Amino acid sequence: MVIRQGTQEDVDSIMNLIRSCIVHMESSNIFQWDEIYPDKDTIIKDIKKQELYVLEELGSICAFIVLNEFQSPEYNSINWKFSGKVLVVHRLSVDPLMQGKGLAKKLMLFAHEFARKHGYESIRLDAFTKNPSAVALYTTLGYSKVGTVVFRKGTFFCFEIQIS
């Protein structure tokens, strides 16, 4: 199992993974993603900016994560605990056939290491309130719930953790 930067050659595999995730989430009554978001243009931009990382096993992309400093304007309403240089996690996804094997946790621990290596003081992210697996993952990893924001698909919890 290897984590590496995504490339343009990965776009179709990533889009297939996203479509599988949408079907899987909708079958669990989680209507977080759709044909509007995340779309192919978003993924292409993530790759061009060198912010998308894939987790690959036996030549297949099983999961991916996007790491950058972009905070949605909605984040301005949150009373964050930590200041300084902030890394933000976006679009963490695991192939439904590979879920339950700790891949999301592996990618989050990769994000923690990335943050330490690049001098970030904290990590922020949001998770759909109706996605119990995501909420449980971040809570288990020690993230604090610091508020909620509303995006097009509903209410999202905002989480953060200090990186030492």
Provide a descriptive summary of the structure in words.
Helices cover 30% and strands 32% of the residues. It is an alpha+beta fold. A seven-stranded mixed β-sheet has the order 1-2-3-4-5-7-6. It is globular, with a radius of gyration of 15 Å. It starts with a strand and ends with a strand.
Spell out the key features of this protein:
164 residues; alpha+beta; Aminopeptidase; seven-stranded mixed sheet; 4 helices; 30% helix; globular
Task: Spell out the blueprint of helices and strands.
Blueprint: E1 2-5, H1 11-27, H2 40-48, E2 52-57, E3 60-68, E4 86-94, H3 103-117, E5 122-128, H4 132-140, E6 144-151, E7 154-162
Parallel strand pairs: 4-5
Antiparallel strand pairs: 1-2, 2-3, 3-4, 5-7, 6-7
Order of helices and strands: EHHEEEHEHEE
Helix percent band: 25-40%
Low-confidence stretches: none
CATH architectural group: 3-Layer(aba) Sandwich
Cα Rg: 15 Å
Percent of residues in beta strands?
A: 25-35%
Give me the count of strands. Answer: 7
What is the CATH homology-level superfamily? Answer: Gcn5-related N-acetyltransferase (GNAT)
Task: Please give the alpha-carbon distance between the first and last residues.
Answer: 26 Å
The largest pleated sheet is described as:
7 strands, mixed
